[in-house]
Amino acid sequence: MKRRIVLLGPPASGKGTQADRLSKLLGIPHVSTGALLRSECTRGTPLGIEADSWTSRGLLVPDELAVRLITGWLEAHGTTFLFDGFPRSVGQAERLDAILGSLFAPLDLIILLELGDDEICRRVTARLTCLKCGATFSPFLNGLSVHDPCPRCGSPLAKRNDDSVEALNQRLNVYRKITLPVVDYYERTAPKLLHRISAEQESDAVFDDIKTLVWENDRED
Ligand code: ADP
After folding, report:
1. Domain spans of the chain, in order of start
2. Contact 60/66 with Cβ under 8 angstroms?
3. Order of strands across the sheet that contains 157-158
4. Can you name the CATH fold of 4-115+179-216?
5. Which of 58, 157, 161, 163 could join 170 via S-S bond, C-beta 3.0 to 4.6 A?
6. Distance, CA 60 to ligand 1 centroid (Å)?
């Protein structure tokens, strides 16, 4: 079974939802840098306040800050993980390789969830997020409104301040310019680990494809 997994994909490709389901199934921690940053921000920590000045404009936080967050996480929790939203730039991918190399714990699976722009826009501008536990919900699928409590933890749901059309366009530009090159990076440095899955499919079908990859070649491990 794969134990060090990176999930890549544009906003609303379902990274968070799939990582959550996989984390429960495998007992591997789901680490979302976006959710970690939102939690720092809600708690008003200096790191959270600094991060919010970037995230609320749809911009990536500086590599240095994202790497600090992940290094702290690895030190506290060890080298079994499902990363959602990290690495998001070639600089972060290089730093991650160096950190994991020094721990003799290289990545063993990289999954890219692919989704077209129209569907991204439809999903993002409608979705609701729990600011406490980080779960996201689609009003289309879950029949929820901003007045309902989070079905998972009971806290209030809200629209994220970077889920507006303006911030989304900015995030998509950033994704194309800064994050898609991460896919090229892994194609060059780890082609056997990188797999693409269509996120246009229903959530269960995406999950089935992911599970196949997680257990692929297990007999040879
Ligand atoms: P989404 O995948 O929908 O864009 P996330 O919750 O993953 O949402 O991230 C929200 C925001 O947090 C990003 O737009 C970015 O500003 C910031 N962020 C998250 N992860 C990183 C990262 N690895 N590097 C830089 N910024 C990040």
Report:
1. 4-115+179-216
2. yes
3. 136-137, 128-130, 157-158
4. Rossmann fold (3.40.50)
5. 58
6. 6
